[in-house]
Structures are given as structure tokens and as C-alpha cells.
Design a protein that fits this description.
Blueprint lengths: L4 H9 L6 H39 L4 H25 L10 H13 L8 E4 L15 H14 L5 E7 L5 E7 L9 H5 L13 H12 L3 E8 L2 E7 L1
Parallel strand pairs: 1-2
Antiparallel strand pairs: 2-3, 3-5, 4-5
Helix pairs in contact: 2-3, 3-4, 3-5, 4-5, 5-7
Length: about 240
Amino acid sequence: MKDDTKDDVQDNNKPDLRSKHTVQQHAAILELLASRICHDLISPVGAVNNGVEFIQETGDASADAIELIAMSAHEAAVRLQMFRLAYGAGGRDPNVKPEDVHKVFLGLTDGEGKEAHKVTLDWDPHAPLGFDEFPVGYCKTLAGVLMLSQECLPKGGTIKVQPGNNANETHVIAEGINCAPRQMVKEALALDVALDDLDPRLIHPYALSVLAQNYGLTISIEEEVEGRTVLKLSA
């Protein structure tokens, strides 16, 4: 008779992805991520809706009203494109290049907020980035890191992208007044945050780090000093 004891022990040591606890974790992360994406989109989408309603009610299709609608629609579109790059399956397509990420993110910074809070992108996407060959998922992860760097600049500033100090390492550098990562972002990137402590503010770094690790990549904070934050993307 076959002794199944050993097999039973091995099976018991395997994580049960269908367990109630794991399903609850996945559900909570999905809900928080959806909440954050909707939060980031509701403002420009709402502005488009308000502009259309204003024109319908007043019949005043002035240049200012059209410009507001166009600007808000552009912002919503580029935010959707960034989310698609960072979180969608299409972002891992090998045909996606750094220049594609640059183009989408440049559209986001060009249309962001008031002039006093403007974020400037100082990056030549054709220049070296520290990798001889880009691994699968590199560009989608880079898109996520760029979004994280923008969150470090509440009063605007400059974002630079350049090779890191070691091979297979890219630095995304945010510089500006009050430049700093949000509280507990470092822990979220390290996946060192209890599920109960996750909220919409931390779900971006947490989810992006999960995706990065799936492709053998790591996102971390390399440097944090007054007016400057360096995010590291490494393999």
C-alpha cells in the first residue's frame, strides 16, 4: 500500500490560494486599487461632465468652456494611459519602449495643475538607463515609478531619469520644494505593511511593488533628503 503521509505533509505546506484569508487579501487590494484609480480620474472626468452640462443648459459654447473640456479630457486620457501602462497587461508588451512611457508621462505633466505646481520632465528616453537589455515588465514598472516620483512633488519640481550607480539599475529623481515620499511609502514598497494599514494613499506603491517583483524587479527609495527623492528600479 502506498504511504501518502509524505505527500500529505508537502501539500499542507503549500499556500492555498483559495483559502478565505488569501481571497480576502486579494479582494481588499483590488478594492483599494480600484478606489485610488477612480479617485485620480474623477476630477478630470467630472470637469468634462460639468462643462458639457453648462453648455447644454446655457447654450454658451464659449472658447473658455471648450478649452476647459478639452484640457480635462486630455488629463483623463493621459491618466488612463499611464494606468494602462503600469497596471495593464499591455504594459509588459516587449514592443513598449521607454520613449512610449516618456510620451505618455510628458502628456500628464504638461497638463498638470497650475503653473506654480508644474512638474517638468528632464529625461532623454533614448539615453542609457542602466540596462543592456530591458527585462520583461521594465517599461510598465518604470511608468509606475514615474507616477510615484510625481507624488513626491506637492509643489511641483523636476523629474529626471538616469542610470543608477550599479548595473541593471535606473534612478528616477524628483527634486523640488517639500519634495518627499508620503508617509509609509518606503514600507509599502517593501511590502512591509499590514493589510489593515493599507489605504488608497499607499495602494499605488504596494501594488506596483507586487507587480515589479513578479517580473524580477525591485522598487525602492535610494535617497531621501530635503528637496530630493531618488527612487531606484533594479533587477
